[in-house]
Amino acid sequence: MDQKKYTISLFGEFVDKSLEDEFLAESLDASKKITAYMALVFGAILGLFVVESYITEGGTALFAGITPLRLVFILVSILVFLTARKTTKHKHLVYIVSFYQVMMGIVYLLTLKHFDSLTFFSILGLMVITLAMYLVPNKIAISQIISIVFSVLFFIYPSHKLVDIQTYEFYRVVAYQTILLVYCNIIYCWAETTKRKTFIANRKLLDLSSKDPLTGIYNRKMFDDAMDQWIGFSKRSGHPLSLILFDIDYFKGVNDNFGHMVGDRVLKDVAAIVKQSIRNTDIFARWGGDEFAILLPNTDLEKAEKLAERLKGCIANYCPPESPNKITCSFGVAQYEQNDTKQSLLRRVDDLLLEAKTGGRDKVVS
Q1: Helix residue ranges per DSSP H, the chain
Q2: Model pTM?
Q3: Under DSSP, is residue 296 helix (H, G, I), strand (E, B) or coil?
Q4: Pairing assessment for the beta strands 283-288 and 291-297 based on DSSP bridges
Q5: Helices 90-113 and 17-26 sit at what angle, rounded to 10 degrees?
Q6: Per-residue pLDDT tens for 339-364?
Q7: What SS3 string covers 269-294?
Q8: What is the DSSP letter of 158?
Q9: Are 274 and 311 in contact (CB under 8 A)?
């Protein structure tokens, strides 16, 4: 486990961009649900304000001025509710949430513009809107910028309409808003950090259950599950699927002559060589003992055979530091056929591996 890769910044995000993207992709469903339903709640709350304003101010110029703004925000809230749920990429959700946060601030500031004078309820509204901005999931830096700009704009323009407020009270309000912003950022960063720590813990558990502890590649159970999935996919789609099964020639002699520690080192090094030579989409696992398996999605027999030949050459060039013996491997290669089951495909490739071993070893049979 590369601890540096799992470093979390002060903003509650992974320093490693690829890992951060992976986390965001995994948490997308939860984030878009929160965004959608919070937008629905905010729109409903503003709808209540419209009703209250109609009852108390209906027919006045003030009502005519602020109601269209509130109705626009309600409409935007409905659109956010509908679009957020259908979002398939996290960066698109960031655009939606950022737009929505900006709309919160703009609508509130434009609403205050229609009032001749403001009371402490306007300050309370400033704080509530600030809190609302942090209730929808967004990148912390964007939320910070939007909330700070919103606060500054409030104190630059509408605040001069505040009545019955002394200068020292005004500065106290500024201090309270600053404290609120600091509090929101600390809580938000802490929550995001906690989510990512949980993500790391779940990954470690997954690694323990799906990885071979010696070589760090997948174990047999994980490979079996992947085979079931990819055979089902190939059966439905007709896309090619190939399987390579190989083992280390005369591996027992390495253990007997040089000890199991040297044997373990050979297993790890061979696994590392193969891992560097295959695609990220290929499923590479320790099948058992000195035997390994590689499942190759969207790969026909010809390409799989070329890969096996290349792997055979790479391994043959490997010289174990503790052992004078040259390390070679024998390979069996087969392609999934339409009437194959998992068992029949494994049996066929196992027979090909046996043929490679009985035919002199250090060869590929397909």
Answers
A1: 17-26, 28-57, 61-84, 90-113, 120-135, 140-156, 167-210, 220-237, 251-258, 260-277, 301-316, 342-358
A2: 0.68
A3: strand
A4: antiparallel
A5: 80
A6: 889 999 999 999 999 999 998 888 88
A7: HHHHHHHHHCCCCCEEEEEECCEEEE
A8: G
A9: yes
